[in-house]
Amino acid sequence: MSWIKRNIGFVIGSLVALGLLGAGVFYLFAKIGNANGITEEIQKQYTELDRLNKLNPHPGSGKVDNVKIAKEHEQKLRAYMAKAQPLFQRVPPIPDSPKISNAEFAAQLRNTVAQLRRDAEQASVQIPKDYYFTFEAQRRLMLFDAGSLEKLAVHLGEIKALSEIFFSAKINSLDAVKRELVSTNDNNPGDYLTGKKTVSTPLADVTPYEFTFKSFSPELAQVLSGLANSPNGFIVKSINVEPAPQVENIQGMPGAMPVPLQPQAYVQPFYPPPGGGGADAVLGPGRRGAANYIPQPVPAAQPTARTGAGGMTTALNERPLRITMVVEVVKMKPAAK
Asked: What is the pTM of this model?
C-alpha cells in the first residue's frame, strides 16, 4: 500500500492507459465488423451487376442505353393508357354511395330488377318467369353480408349495364346470367360461375360474366356492336354458338319465334246438281245422307322454290341460335403518381 502511495502518479497513469487500450481494442473490433459488412454489401452489388450483365436484353453499354429506352417506352405506354381511359369508364354501382346500408341496397335491388323486367318486355325479349338476374339469393333478404355489400352493388350495376345492351339488340330471349360468388348469402348455384373470379392486376380489375341467350345472327351482331361501342370496358372473352333446340313457342308472346303452318289437304265439297233431284240424282235412290258418301281429298299444292335466271335455287331458312357468351368488365385502377 505504501508503494502505491509513493507511486500514485504511475498507478493512475497505468489505469488510464489500460482504459484507453480497452477502448482502442473495442473500436478496432467495431470497425472490423463494419468493414466485413461493407465487404458483404460490395459482394452483393457485384453479384447483382454480374446478373444484369448477363441479362437478355442487356442493360446496355457505350452508346446503347437500354434502361433509358425502357423508361421511354414506359412513358409511351402511360400516354396510351391515358388516351384509352375514356373507353374504360367506370360502371356506376347500384347504389352508388360511399357507405351502403342494408335497406338502401334492398330497395335499389328491387327497383333495378323491376326496371330490367320492364326493359325486357318493351324490347320483346323473353326472360325466365320472376327472374332476378343472379340475385335470387338476396331476393327476400333485408340483412346482407356486411363485407360484400359493395361488391354486390358493383355486380348489380354491371349486370344492368350489360343487360341493357342485350335488350337493345332485340334478342329473342335471355335465358340466364351468371356472375362470380362474392357473398356468404350466395346460395343459388345456377346464378354463379364455376372456377372464375375477378382477376386483379397492377393496372385493372377484370370481372367475368356469362350470358346465355337465343337470337338470330343479326341480333348477335347487334350485341357485339353494342359491347364494342360501349364507353365501358366490356370485352368478349369467349363465345359459343350452336343451333337452338326446336321448340314450339306460343304465338303472340314477346320474343316468340313464328311456327310455320303446314298446308292442309283440300276436300272437294258436295253440291247437288242443278235442276233438283237432290242427292238421289247423284247417289241413286235410297242412298241419301252424307254417311253414304265420302268425298275424296284433293292433295294441296306444294310450294316450289323459285329459280333464278341462272338456274340456281335461292332459299333463306335461318334457324335461331343459342349463344353462350363470356364478357369481362375491365375496371381501370387510378394511375400511380
From this structure: 0.63
Render pLDDT for 218-253 as a digit per residue (tens, 0 to 9). 999 999 999 999 999 999 999 999 998 876 544 444
Rounded CA-CA distance 10/5 in Å is 10
> Nine-digit cell at 267?
276436300
Cross-strand pairs, 176: 212
| End-to-end CA, the chain | 77
User: How many other β-carbons are positioned within 10 Å of the β-carbon of residue 153?
Assistant: 21
Q: What is the pLDDT of residues 301-331, one digit of tens each?
A: 555 555 545 556 555 667 899 999 999 999 9
CB-neighbour burial class of residue 138 (10 A; exposed 0-12, middle 13-18, buried 19+)? buried
Which CATH architecture group holds 92-245+322-332?
Answer: 2-Layer Sandwich (3.30)
Query: Facing residues of 320 across strands?
Result: none
Residues of the chain with CATH 3.30.70.60: 92-245+322-332
